[in-house]
Amino acid sequence: MLDDKMQESLNYQLNRELYSGYLYLAMAAYFEDQDLPGFGNWMRIQAQEELSHGMRFYDYLVQRGSRVLLSEIETPQKEWDSPLVAFEHVYEHEQMVTGLINDLVDLAIELKDHATNNFLQWFVAEQVEEEESASGILQKVKIAGESGRGLYMLDQELAQRVFHPPADE
Ligand code: FEO
What we know:
By secondary structure, the chain is mostly helical. The chain is about 75% helix and about 0% strand.
């Protein structure tokens, strides 16, 4: 059985992962409205990944005999000034999520909850990938600049992204 504080914190992180999915789905809608369907595809898949992250927390809570408690997911931002601003937001958001995961690890260590610490290590590694991926695309968007041709080529590249369910990883 999990400590009450840990149960509450894992439920909060479940909510944050679902919010991340909601934010990226809002970005998908923004890019699709901007006639950049490849960027939209990348964001749709990012949203699917976030839902799968949320389900990891859901499944872990169930596995530990703890209660999953869903809470309100706030309305995400709807518009961004440019693809560059949107990807700056993605990168900042992922850095913020890394901070939340690190706080959870700190709590697990404080509570001597080795099982939860072990569970969280998947997310520690995942956040390294999330930040690398976001900053990599941010750099490409900077290089593409505002030029139509550069953004078009990047859009073609981002259209190739496919979703890999966690079991495939
Ligand atoms: Fe679930 Fe993008 O971190």
